[in-house]
Amino acid sequence: MGVENGDDDYTQDGTVDLKGNSVRRSKRGGWTACFFVVVYEVFERMAYYGISSNLVIYLTEKLHQGTVRSANNVTNWVGTVWMTPILGAYFADAHLGRYLTFVIASAIYFSGMSLLTLAVSVPGLKPPQCVESNVTDCKKASTLQLAIFYGALYMLTVGTGGTKPNISTIGADQFDDFDPKEKGHKLSFFNWWMFSIFFGTLFANTILVYIQDNVGWTLGYGLPTAGLAISIMIFLAGTPFYRHRVPSGSPFTRMAKVIVAALRKWNTPIPNDPKELYELDLEEYAKKGKFKIDSTPTLRFLNKACVKTGSKDPWMLCSVTQVEETKQMLRMFPILIATIVPSTMIAQVNTLFVKQGTTLDRGIGNFHIPPASLAGFVTISMLISVVIYDRFFVPTMRRLTKNPRGISLLQRMGIGLVFHIFIMMIASLIERRRLGAAKDHGVVESGGQVPLSIFILLPQFVLMGTADAFLDVAKIEFFYDQAPESMKSLGTSYSMTSIGIGNFLSSFLLSTVSRITTKHGHHGWILNNLNASHLDYYYAFFAILNLLNFFFFLVITKYYVYKAEVSDSMEVLEGQLRGMAPAATDQEESRRR
Question: How far apart are CA 255 and CA 327, in angstroms?
């Protein structure tokens, strides 16, 4: 009998099928299951970026909103899109499971896309065409028109709230951490995940944006709606191949119990021997498909929650594993804070960067480049950077560091943060050149086209893609990898929460800077007429903000403690790089029995 027909073929990470039965590696999961997940995400990203990439143009040209208002409406919506995954993660980890949460949310997502397509298509649902150079002089959208349009937009935030934290987690769940070969595949999964889905982003930022600007918004929104429908059907077709994780209860309640128990035992001394702390038997964790975690000295105050005092009240006594899970989620919080500022920079790509493009010469012969299509260069740059990183950089660094990832996830994130500093410095210098050309050609007051090619903006778009290849990929992998096994969806939502907060911070900074710089009769940095604005000052301010954030990142990473691996797969991979192999852990032996 081959191995694949024996017990060794069953996954050891607690994954099951939809009926709760144990699953074989040879029958479910792996790259076969990931194919359906990745193809879904390609089409879904086409749908999302088909809306978000050019939304600021629709708000300006069709709903007749000014620069600050339209930019803030975009970042507020995008911020909400990336904040709602916390709720989706909660329902997935606590109640419904990732698969069912995803399916329900997908139906809501598709409904929102369909309503949004109607909102941009039906004449009575949008204000009349306006040819005024100053959009503030145009007829505004009615309350009903705005209610339908924004109602559809924010219906999307509910849909993405359930899909985003679960789709990448479902993909990563297809690899068993207890199998060194599958663990090795998981280390590359997030690189190729980002590589694949950006094809959908590239299509949205080029073809769809062109259709919206030159053919019409009905087709421009109808295509991504159809694409989303196709993606949902593709995902459902892969159902027989997926591995699933059983919901393990509310992560927020489990963490709250630890914090409350520790506070209630404020004056209780912690024993020096961790074995005296309360913990369940290893077999009990293995039976439930969960993982036991040993006590650590970090955030030691929380260890009070598992000090035995005679009470069995779950709000007075928690297991060591429950305490360590809470620690893991809290330890990641400073890292989340450090990723907020670069998320604010990313928000500029689909707002101010695009608005800059509308002031420049977009012609190539008789062809006019849609300003939002420059975001396609972010995608192209990232695609190239991810391939170079995975195929050349990682193998080289593996030989030097003996780390299966090449460099640590935090080091990779740090490189991305450095890129963001230079991006905003370069963006400031390019904007200064654009403003100089506007002054030289007398189009400052009129707000007319500046006789410079739109391609002068290319460096800031290209470098943003390179930064994403380091920071964004590492961020999603870090929060997934460092989250406890029973809170993976919540951990993944951390990476999305930082994007959401970053977009809200962008709205706050834009409004605040615009208001402060127009006080006492000053001209202001951000006006509807960008030729009379000072975005160069604003971008320089962002460069300084990124520099301060980088120093903050260096401080918090110095004290960050990576969580212990639940299996010895990483040690096996490291041993292979060093030419040796470690013995199996007690936890693995327990699972194999």
Answer: 9
What are phi and psi for residue 97, nearest 5 degrees? 85, 160
* Local mean pLDDT, 10-residue blocks, the chain (593 residues): 56 82 87 90 89 87 83 89 89 87 95 94 82 69 89 94 88 84 79 78 88 91 92 93 85 92 93 89 70 86 92 91 92 94 90 89 85 87 89 89 88 96 96 93 87 93 94 90 84 88 92 88 84 92 97 94 64 59 49 48
What is the chain's alpha carbon radius of gyration, rounded to the nearest angstrom? 26
Q: Are 119 and 125 in contact (CB under 8 A)?
A: yes
The residue written with tokens 């006080």 in the block is 519
- H or E stretch including 190? helix 180-203
Distance CA 481, CA 192 (A): 16
Fill in the DSSP letter of residue 363.
Answer: E
CA angle 228, 229, 231 (to 5 degrees): 60
Is residue 49 within 8 Å of residue 42, measured between CB atoms?
Answer: no
pTM of this prediction? 0.78
Question: What is the Cα–Cα distance from 339 to 572, expressed in whole angstroms?
Answer: 31
Q: Are 45 and 67 in contact (CB under 8 A)?
A: no
Q: What is the DSSP letter of 367?
A: E
How far the first Cα of the chain sits from its last, in Å, is 19
